[in-house]
Amino acid sequence: MKTISWKIHLNSDPAHVFRLLTRPEGIVKFWSESAIQDNNIIHFAFPNGETYDGEIIKIVPYNEFHLKYFNSLVKLYLVASDQGGTDLTLINENVPEKDYTEVNAGWVSVLMNLKAVADFQIDLRNHNPQRTWDQGYADN
C-alpha cells in the first residue's frame, strides 16, 4: 500500500473550500456527477457510471475532512494562508500499489478542478459519459 500527498493553494477562504468539500451541492461542482449524503455516507456517482459509497470518518469544521474512499483513506486539511486564501493538503493512505499511478493523477485532476471552481466558478469537466477517465480524458 502507498500514500499520495498533494498540496494546493486556493485564493478562496477555508469556509468556502470546506463547504465545497463536504456538502453534496459543493461536491458535484468539482468532483462527481452526483453526490447524495445519507448521515455519514456520501453516495458518489461518476460520469463513467461508477458509484461509490464513501464513509465520512472525521469532520472538523473548516479544518479537516476524512473519508473512506475506494477502500482507502482520504484526509483533507485546510489552513488559512497568511496571504489570504487556503492551503489545502490531501493525503490518500492505503492506495494499492497497482492503482497508485492512476489514483495519483486522478487527485491532480480533482484538485485542479476544485481550484477552478473555488477561485473562478468554472467547472473544467466535460460531463460526457463517452469522454471519461476510462477513455483517457483528463477533463472527465
Find the CATH superfamily. Answer: START domain
**Computed Rg:** 14 Å
CATH architecture: 2-Layer Sandwich
Mean pLDDT across the residues is: 95
Major beta sheet summary:
7 strands, antiparallel
Residue stretches low in confidence (pLDDT < 50, at least 5 long) are none
Number of strands: 7
Keywords:
single chain; 140 residues; alpha+beta; Alpha-D-Glucose-1,6-Bisphosphate, Chain A, domain 4; seven-stranded antiparallel beta sheet; 3 helices; globular
Walk me through this protein's architecture.
- The protein is α+β, with helices and mostly antiparallel strands.
- It has one domain (2-135): START domain (Alpha-D-Glucose-1,6-Bisphosphate, Chain A, domain 4).
- Helices cover 26% and strands 39% of the residues.
- It has 3 helices and 7 strands.
- It has helices at 14-22, 24-30, 100-120; strands at residues 2-10, 34-38, 41-45, 51-60, 64-69, 72-80, 86-95.
- Strands 1-7-6-5-4-3-2 form a 7-stranded antiparallel β-sheet.
- The two termini are 26 Å apart.
- The mean pLDDT is 95.
Task: Please render the helix and strand layout as text.
Elements: E1 2-10, H1 14-22, H2 24-30, E2 34-38, E3 41-45, E4 51-60, E5 64-69, E6 72-80, E7 86-95, H3 100-120
Helix pairs in contact: 1-2
